[in-house]
Amino acid sequence: MSPTPAAGPDSGRRWLMLGVTALGFVAFTFNWFVMPGTFGGVAQAFSSGLPELALLLSAFVGGYAVMHIPAGFLAVRFGLRSTMTAGLALEGASTALAALAPDYRTLLVLRLVAGLAASVFAGIGIAAVSAWFREREHALAMGVVSASFSVGVAVGLYLWTPVLDALGWRAGLAAAGGTAFAVAVLVGSVYRAPDGTAELRGTVLTRGSIRAVLGNTALWRFGLAFFVGYGGYFAVAQLVGTFALDADYPASVAALAALMAGVAGLPGSLVAGWLSDRSRRRRAWFTAFLVLQAAGTLLLPLLGPGGLWFAAFLVGFGFNGCFAIWQTIPADVAGVPSEHVGTAVGLLLTVGGVGGFAVPWAVGALTPGHGYPAAWTAVAIGTLACLAAVATPVRRRQVRTPRAAPAVP
Fold first, then answer.
1. How far apart, in whole angstroms, are the C-alpha atoms of residue 234 and residue 297?
2. Could you tell me the CA-to-CA distances from 339 to 36, 136, 186, 363, 402 in Å, in that order?
3. Confidence of residue 213 (pLDDT cuts 50, 70, 90)
4. Nearest to 273 by CA among 22, 16, 79, 74
5. What pTM, to 2 d.p., does this model score?
6. What does the pLDDT look like over 184-208, one tens digit per residue?
7. Cα 147 vs. chain centroid, distance in angstroms?
8. Does the domain spanning 204-391 belong to CATH 1.20.1250.20?
9. Which CATH number is correct for 14-192, 1.10.3720.10, 3.40.50.300, 3.40.50.720, 1.20.1250.20?
10. Same fold across 14-192 and 204-391
11. What CA–CA distance (Å, rounded) separates 28 from 153?
């Protein structure tokens, strides 16, 4: 296993590495969620309707879903810094080039490429932070990463809208992509792996190590435990406003509920990280925050217009708390060496991503015949049922890897 950074001269450096990587996460999610604000201009420029505009979002998510595990392989071979920097730079470049798209098809392809690139940064960025914090303040560091994700979403969906209004969709998109590219340069310039971890700068990728990581029982158990919860959050975040309007709640109630589901991630991720680090009981706190998310989901149709915001807040708070702890599982519970954490995180994100597709779809399919209350109840029950995957203690399994090869320049 790669050594854990000890307290001493590197203690300050690791917070610098967390800070610059967290900034990368803000840029990554900002470039993901900047597109909805361009829809008016895109629709006018390319005579596109809602199906075409929605496909732009799906193209990004599709690319994002398929590259998590391959990104881990790239990081093993070429190193954490090179891989995550390339991923963020390519995402920024693809977003900026989308501003020059002469037609809808070109724009669609560029959003697909941006999603592929974003997937590379996401998992490897988590691994890059894990390399500095594994076994010590790990969950808190992952809470900062999760909070950065939430900040990036807010920038893309809300704070960048005035820029798009002032500059137009093409110039605004170019500026967003240029910002991400500049942050990628900063990440590549500042980030370094801990001393004594040559394997994090590039090593041998073998079939045996791939099998050991992808066959790790602990990873699969925690991946399945979060399957419905992961998708349930995205169902709530995307559909709680529609549910409120369908229930004849005021538009202000719908908007507040959607906002609460998002901003709750900031305190949720940090509180969960701090609590988990203090007790070192990852499974217990993961379970507690997932139960909190399920409770919020169950309360959505029960609290009425005056309490809907609170239920949505519980969902966001619980989900992001779980997500912060979930990211520590590869290193702290599954025993995956630092150079393979990117692949392990990729496995978790892939399993969760299937839930992220399936659960919102199931809610959409269930609602017309049975209504939102039944759908939310089913999601809450499914979220709790998945906890059976980690109902018993998870045995730590050490992954054996080959000796480190010379660093890749």
1. 12
2. 36, 18, 22, 38, 11
3. confident
4. 22
5. 0.84
6. 999 999 999 887 777 778 777 778 8
7. 10
8. yes
9. 1.20.1250.20
10. yes
11. 9
